[in-house]
Specification:
The complex is a heterodimer of chains A (259) and B (159). Chain A is 87% helix and 0% strand. Chain A is mainly α and 259 residues long. In chain A, α4 (85-123) packs across α7 (180-190), α6 (137-176) crosses α8 (193-220) and α8 (193-220) packs antiparallel against α9 (226-255). The mean pLDDT of chain A is 92. In chain B, β3 and β4 (81-88) form a beta hairpin. Chain B has helices at 3-26, 138-158, and strands at residues 40-47, 58-61, 64-74, 81-88, 98-103, 110-115, 128-129, 131-133. By secondary structure, chain B is of the alpha/beta class. Classes of the chains: A mainly alpha (259), B alpha/beta (159). Chains A and B meet through α2, α6, α7 and α8 of A and α1 of B.
Chain lengths: 259, 159
């Protein structure tokens, strides 16, 4: 009987947590229109989570571009196909690596700071104080951050891909000696604006929703203690990363199912 | 930091992101080169076998890209492959132009090569190219080769 009770409790707890998260997500979306009316708050948050993630995104994009070009070259040159280096780097960055790596970095760089910030606001009872003053903390605190995350993520992912391709250009043309015209023309003939670049942007927007919503949820539902905030910050990174990877598989299967 | 400088930095960030998207679209994808703009007219051609031809493969005349394949379907009556293509408006071909399915390099992608004929009248939008040459299917070639080898071997023994 104890076994069944344990199982039942586990299932109910899990379902309850999912339901709690879903309700939080719907409330968050419902609060977005209110934050649109005070767009200044959103701009401040874009500065906090978008601008301040720029350096790490650009640096990672550049190094991923360098390394991808070098490694692909070693593999491709065996088949005499080194000329298609640009296409491979471009497609893997625009379709997969750009959105996914950016989202993972974003969860680590911006997600954690969101969780810690809101968690500390909760620990300092600022959120409770807002509620006392009849200010909805979802509209005042959460929604601007949510919106800023959704706006920042596609921009950061596009920057990551663009910088990565430029990095690959430096390696391919400068270091390896692939013809520059060929490097660009093979990309222009093989990469479709809507199918590849457009889907990459859609992907990164979805990842932005996942990362920001998870971070806000963990911060808002944290236990109001130092340990609770620390634990919630860790959970933000783990949950957001796993969510992004799972969602990436689903989106890839859906977007690129036809060759 | 005051409000003004925050807004300036956010504006820079958004502009940078927009430049990145534009770079991806124009320099690193096909929006700048083809499909996006330019007037085109549609031609269709029927092939006995289209091989590995794919939609969006290029149409070339004398090696110069003049258009793209827009769709491939099967003609249910003749069981031929029906390839529709759009060709740049400025380029006209005579009525007796022939279409061949060619391969770029030994194992490269397949494309359609157009060879202009000598007819004084030109193809109009919606016309069908009647002179076509199918794709070379490697298995058929090998089959023919083996068959002719076997035939040679048989005749050698009979002599």
């Amino acid at each position: 009987m104890n076994f069944f009770q344990g199982l039942g409790r586990k299932v109910l707890d899990t379902l309850g947590a999912w339901g709690h998260g879903a309700v939080f997500f719907l409330e968050l979306i419902a609060a977005v229109p209110a934050s649109l009316r005070r767009f200044g708050l959103v701009i401040g948050q874009i500065h906090a989570i978008g601008n301040r993630s720029l350096v790490i995104i650009v640096a990672s994009g550049l190094s991923v571009g360098f390394v991808l070009a070098l490694q692909m070259y070693y593999a491709l040159v065996t088949y005499g196909a080194a000329e298609s280096l640009g296409l491979i780097v471009n497609l893997s960055l625009v379709r997969e690596l750009g959105p996914v790596v950016t989202a993972l970095l974003f969860a680590g760089r911006a997600g954690t700071s969101l969780t810690a910030e809101i968690g500390l606001m909760k620990a300092g009872e600022q959120i409770a104080a807002m509620e006392l003053m009849a200010i909805d903390p979802r509209a005042r605190v959460l929604a601007p951050r949510f919106l800023a995350g959704i706006i920042s993520m596609p921009l950061l992912a596009a920057l990551f891909s663009a910088v990565g391709i430029l990095g690959a250009y430096v390696v391919a043309v400068g270091l390896i000696g692939i013809d520059a015209g060929n490097f660009w023309s093979i990309q222009q003939s093989g990469v479709d604006v809507w199918r590849d670049v457009g889907n990459g942007v859609v992907k990164s927007a979805v990842f932005g929703v996942i990362c920001t919503a998870v971070a806000l949820y963990q911060g808002f539902e944290t236990e109001a203690t130092p340990e609770g905030v620390a634990y919630a910050t860790t959970r933000t990174v783990v949950t957001a990363s796993l969510g992004v990877l799972a969602m990436d598989f689903i989106l890839t299967a859906w977007m690129f199912s036809t060759p | 930091m005051n409000k003004r400088s925050i807004e300036i930095f956010v504006g820079l960030f958004v502009a940078l992101g927009a430049v990145a998207v534009l770079f991806l679209a124009l320099k690193a994808a096909n929006l700048g080169s083809f499909s996006g703009g330019g007037d085109t007219y549609t031609l269709t051609a029927k092939f006995d076998n289209i091989g590995g031809l794919k939609a969006r493969a290029p149409i070339r005349a004398a090696g110069v890209t003049v258009g793209r394949i827009t769709g491939i379907s099967l003609d249910a009556v003749t069981y031929q492959g029906l390839v529709s293509m759009e060709v740049n408006k400025g380029i006209v071909f005579p009525r007796d132009t022939s279409a061949k399915i060619l391969t770029a390099g030994l194992l490269g992608d397949q494309y359609i090569g157009l060879e202009a004929g000598g007819d004084p009248e030109n193809l109009q939008g919606g016309d069908v190219i009647t002179r076509t040459q199918s794709a070379v299917v490697l298995e058929n070639l090998i089959g023919q080769f083996l068959f002719s080898k076997a035939a040679d071997g048989g005749s050698d023994k009979s002599e």
